[in-house]
Structure formats: C-alpha cells, structure tokens
TrEMBL record:
Residues 44-478 form the Amidohydrolase domain. This is Amidohydrolase family protein. Signal peptide: none annotated. InterPro entries: Amidohydro_3, Metal-dep_hydrolase_composite, Metal_Hydrolase. It holds the Pfam family Amidohydro_3.
Length: 483
C-alpha cells in the first residue's frame, strides 16, 4: 500500500450535529474534515451511515498491569465482612499463593487480620489487595513467603505498595504482556484510544518493551515514580518525550495522602474511629515542594495524588510555590475555599467519577457533614478548573462511558443522585474524556471512535451501554464491527 494511503470515513456526524461530513486519516493525523473530502489512491473508504464520530477517548488514570492481572485474581468485592472475604479465598481453587482483589473494609464492623485467613485456610498463603490499592491483607504463610513480620497482616500505604510490586512481578513478563495486550484490545472496544498509566514500576521502560513486541492498541503516557527517577533523568526523559511507538513519558507521580476506604486520606476533620485520626500525609509539605520543584526543573510534570481536603490544600500550596503545569490526581474532597485554586493555568484536576458510585456510603460514614464537598465536579468546572476523567483501573473498570454516566447521573443504581448539584452535563463530561473538545480538526492525531448513538442526546443508561462500532488509533483500526 502506498505511504499516503489512509482511511476515509464517509457520512459521519459530530455530536449534536445533523450534518454529515467526511474525515480522512493519513500519516497518523486527521488530514481533512469536510462535506466531501477527496480520496487518495489506496485509501480505505468506510461508510459511517450517519454514525456519530468523536475524538478518541482517554482514560486519564490507570494502573494497567494490575488491571490486566485483576481478572485472574479472586474477586472478594462483594464480601460484607472480613470473615466472608476469608471464606471466599479459602474456597478458591489452585495451589500455592492465592491472590484476591477488591476487599472494601470501609464499611466492615471488624478489621482484616491474618488470623481470620489462617482459620479459614490453615497454612495457605493468601494475599488480598484492597479495592483502592492502598492496603494488602496477608495470611501468616503469605507474610512468611514475603519475609515480612507484621502483627495483623493488614498492611497499608507504602508497606502495601511494596507487596503489590512483588505480586505484579509474579507472572512471567511475556505472559503479563499478553494479558496487557488483551486488556488493551478490550478497552479499545469501549472507545479508548489512550491511557495514562500510573503503574508502580519503571513504567516507561516496561511500555518500551511492550511496544517492541508489536503495535499497541492504545497510546500510553507512562508515569515516573521516585524509585526510578534517577534512571529516568539519566535517560534524559521529560514529560511528553517519545519513548517507543505510541508510548510517551508521562508525569511524575507523588502520593500526598492515602485513600478514603483505607481511612488514610488526609482530612481537616477526624474520622469517626479515633484510631484513624485525620488520616495522614505521606510526605512532609516542605519535602513535597522540594520534590516537585526538583522534577519540574528537569521537565517532569508533577502528578500528585490527593484525596482528603487537607491533602488537596497542601498540594495546591505546593503548586503555587512551584508553578508550571501539573496534575492533582483524584481531588475527592476539597474545602470550599480551595475550589477556585484549581483554576490555575496548566493545572489539571484528574478525577474518577465511578468512585463516587462506590464510595457514597463510605463517604457518608467516614466524611460526615462534608459530603457536599466530595467529588465536587460542578464546582470545579464553575471555578474554571480543567477536568480530565479516568477510572483508576483496577479500582473501577476502564470504561469511559461508565465514568461519563457517573459524572452526569451521580448514581449507578436505583437510588436518587448523590449531591446532584455537583453533576456535570454530558458535553462537559465528554470533553473531559476527549482531550477538551468534541470536534475533529485537521492536524489532530488520527484517533477517533464511531458511536451508534449521539451521546449528547443520550440518557445515563444509554451512555453506560454506548455502542462503539469502531475505534482508530493513529489511523489504524483497533476495534471494528459492521456499522
């Protein structure tokens, strides 16, 4: 096929528009958009038959290796007590280390403990990763397997992350890469064309390895973590730099606090259980500023995890000190006086609307009297903040339509919307998933999706089930069904 051969999409419609148009993709970009674009020799012509065309959807926050593995772990997400979770793990088939995922202790009346796992399955090595990824629960045999001595086996924050890194290293890299490739194809079928991967690893190097194995189904921004910072700087990598194929260097990830379900999110108010206090900062505010300033000087944009309102205030203070572009990841609870501070140029509020569906009951219990400031999407938009939507997979599945519907409806079940005053309109939620706008323009990357319904005229149920007929990345089909 000649180098200039491309794809011409005939008769598609932009969201909210009844006017059909053509889109030509060539050399990895949108070459032309108009009422009747020309066809070059070798172009493939696709009759869209009035389907809605949208720029490619991006999941702004994932942990992709863990998402690829989680479907091969025991699901304990439905457990309503640690005893029930332990019984589920004890019944799991297989020998050797058994890994579970999804326990949510925020509403349990008792805490996880290694003794519960031992009573349920004597001598069996069991590891459970919490739904929010901020805790790991180990049996005595699993603690011994990892050379750990812990009084309860319920590890949180840095101790938990260290164990998760070791769990992720259990599969052979080639096997894991196969799982990642399969997960990427599944994501493309929901319209995803890109992810920002915050896996706790030398993520740019890992994705370079994967790109060397063959074409990727997604564009990837691979984040950098502090243990691999020196290596990243030695390579001369800065945020936005090309790594290999569709892979670029992402931001530099910092954890300012913990999570709601693990009760480690740093808040101005105390948690109901005195043992949880106010949560905790994972980094001293002065050290945070110094680290952000250091990486920013080397061209790495800080992406700082902040869930509690105290953590968000500390992170915003640091951005005012450091300046420059960056991201606040999660921004789940924000003090009223801090909302407008998100409007600073270059700052992105990276949010995960599916979490509000999962966390509304936990928030009502552990963030009493302040839930009106939880997941404050409408307030952030009104203040001029730039929002980007994601999933935090595997905390939630990487389905952009679930995130969009959650941001719009503020409910995922039969219950009325939770704080509907913070809901987004569909167009705003879409733009926050599509790089800021809904129209394709010449010169854009050739990433687009063809949809069976116009999302601007869809109710939440239709949004959640949005039919995706085709997905293209760089002008190459990564998902395709007959229109």
């Amino acid at each position: 096929m000649p180098d200039m051969a491309g794809v011409v999409v005939r008769g598609a419609r932009m969201p909210g528009s009844g006017r059909p148009l053509d889109v030509r993709l060539a050399d990895g970009v949108v070459a032309a958009v108009g009422a009747e674009v020309g066809v070059e020799r070798g172009d493939e012509v696709v009759d869209a038959r009035g389907l809605t065309v949208l720029p490619g959807l991006v999941d702004a926050h994932v942990h992709w290796s863990q998402w690829a593995q989680v479907r091969r772990r025991v699901d304990v997400g439905a457990a309503t007590s640690p005893q029930e979770a332990a019984a589920t793990m004890a019944a799991a088939p297989g020998a050797g280390l058994v890994v579970g995922h999804g326990f949510r202790a925020g509403l349990w009346s008792a805490a996880p403990h290694q003794d519960l796992l031992e009573r349920a399955a004597p001598g069996r090595p069991i590891a459970l990763v919490s739904d929010d990824l901020h805790a790991v629960w180990l049996s005595p045999a699993a603690l011994a397997r990892f050379g750990l001595d812990h009084p309860t086996g319920h590890l949180r924050e840095q101790e938990a992350f260290a164990v998760q890194t070791r769990l992720s290293a259990e599969p052979d890299p080639a096997e894991l890469d196969g799982w990642v490739a399969a997960a990427s194809v599944e994501a493309a079928a929901r319209g995803l064309t890109g992810i920002r991967d915050f896996e706790y690893d030398d993520t740019p190097a890992v994705w370079a390895r994967r790109a060397a194995r063959g074409p990727l189904a997604l564009r990837v921004e691979a984040a950098v973590w502090e243990p691999w910072l020196d290596e990243t700087l030695e390579r001369g990598h800065a945020t936005g730099d090309a790594v290999a194929g569709l892979v670029r260097v992402g931001p530099f990830k910092i954890l300012a606090d913990g999570s709601l379900n693990t009760r480690t999110a740093a808040c101005h108010h105390p948690y109901p259980d005195p043992a949880d206090g106010h949560g905790a900062l994972n980094i001293d505010p002065g050290d945070l500023r110094e680290l952000m300033d250091h990486v920013a000087r080397h061209g790495l944009h800080p992406a700082v995890h902040a869930i509690g309102d105290r953590a968000n205030a500390v992170v915003l203070d640091a951005f005012e000190h450091v300046g420059g572009p960056g991201r606040v990841e999660h921004a789940q609870l924000v003090a009223a006086g801090d909302v407008t501070r998100f409007a600073r140029p270059g700052l992105v509020a990276s949010v995960q609307p599916a979490h509000l569906l999962d966390d509304r009951d936990v928030a009502e219990r552990h963030w009493p009297d302040v839930t009106a400031r939880a997941f404050p999407y409408a307030d952030l938009v009104a203040a001029g903040a730039r929002l980007e939507l994601g999933s935090d997979a595997p905390v939630a599945p990487p389905d952009p339509w679930t995130a969009i519907a959650a941001a719009v409806a503020r409910s995922g079940d039969e219950r009325p919307p939770w704080h509907p005053e913070q809901a987004l309109d569909v167009a705003t939620a879409l733009r926050a998933s599509c790089g800021g706008r809904l129209e394709l323009r010449a010169g854009d990357p050739a990433d687009l999706v063809l949809l069976g319904d116009d999302p601007l005229h869809a109710d939440p149920a239709t949004l959640r089930a949005m039919p995706v007929l085709a997905t293209l990345v760089g002008g190459r089909f990564t998902h395709r069904t007959d229109p």
